[in-house]
Amino acid sequence: MASPVPDPALIPSSDSVSRFRADLGTIWPGAIDAETARLGIAVSGGPDSLALLLLAAMALPGRVEAATVDHRLRAASAQEAAQVAAVCARLGVPHATLPVDVAEGNVQAEARSARYAALAGWAADRGLAAIATAHHADDQAETLVMRLNRASGVAGLAGARARGAVPGARLDLLRPVLGWRRSDLGAVVDSAGLAAAQDPSNADPRFDRARIRAALAGADWLDVAAIAQSAGHLADADAAIEWAAAMEYRQMVKKEPFGLLYRPYAPRAIVLRVIGRIVRELDGEEPRGGAVARLFDALVDGRPSSIGNLVVRPNASGWSFAKAPVRAARKRD
Organism's domain of life (predicted)? Predict the structure, then answer.
């Protein structure tokens, strides 16, 4: 059965499509020419994801499906999903709206978790080979500056990678426009005559990202693309540290009757990663970076310390990590 013919008004320039296909082929080389490999596009209705949708639909005709996750956090979200569905109908691209419930707590983190869980389930149901999102160079630069402003370490400063995995799922997560500027993607949408949805939080100065976005826009002496490339280099450095930490863990961490013994050998950045892994394994919680750094300093000084529900003691053999003893409740008279 032939694929539906897309509305000619929505077709991007051939140069844009060629550029996109080349970028996608770099991170998805085994599948881009495989006729059976279909790509899922996460489309919020904003200009970035709409541009991704238009480019992917032309680069992979008949092999693209789209989904809009409705977090139901704003009154306009259902209407925005309907508008994406209408654009998909004009493109001949199957579309699904995925309503989710966002748990209480950190709204952005919980929304992200719910979004990726919904997309992973949708991709599995539809037999999709990967999911693509519209993260771009300006996103990378904004995140790097925001994290620098918070004194983040290498892990926090590392930019998103062009290819990764959907959190909690065995599914490729692709970011094929990571080297594109926001203006490049906006031009694709403008040329199609589409009115993209605008999230008001993107311009709300109460949010760090919105303030940094405005500051970067007004600093014409900054090279945003170069900043984004630096975020990518930091991602490479983060991967190298993680690789070295895994080796350090295998060689220098041993089981003890009540926990784990670590004989640190590597530089500080690697040791901090190993400590974090030990805490996760014994305590079941992700430790904060500041708490891990304070624990490291105490141990180097030869002082016993604690983190979460663990007690850590330096001794002649190394650093001993164990669950803190549970204090028995005093019996009432």
Answer: Bacteria
Judged by DSSP in three states, 84 sits in: helix
Q: Residue 180: which of 233, 215, 227, 138 has the closest Cα?
A: 138
Which residues line the annotated binding site for ATP?
44-49
Question: Which residues are annotated as part of the binding site?
Answer: 44-49
**Ramachandran area for residue 153 (φ above 0: left; ψ -120 to 50: alpha; else beta):** beta
Q: What angle do CA 113, 225, 33 make, to 5 degrees?
A: 65
Q: Which helix (H) or strand (E) holds 53?
A: helix 47-59
Q: DSSP alpha helices (H): ranges in 99-191?
A: 107-126, 137-148, 154-157, 182-191
Are 160 and 132 in contact, with CB atoms under 8 Å apart?
no
Where exactly are the structural domains of the chain? 8-229, 257-323
- Classify domain 8-229 at the CATH superfamily level: HUPs (3.40.50.620)
Provide the whole-model pTM.
0.86
Q: Look at the alpha carbons of 211, 212, 213, 217 in this order and tell me if their dihedral is positive or negative.
A: positive
What is the arithmetic mean of pLDDT over 109-133?
A: 94
**Short-list 318, 279, 278, CA closest to 299:** 318
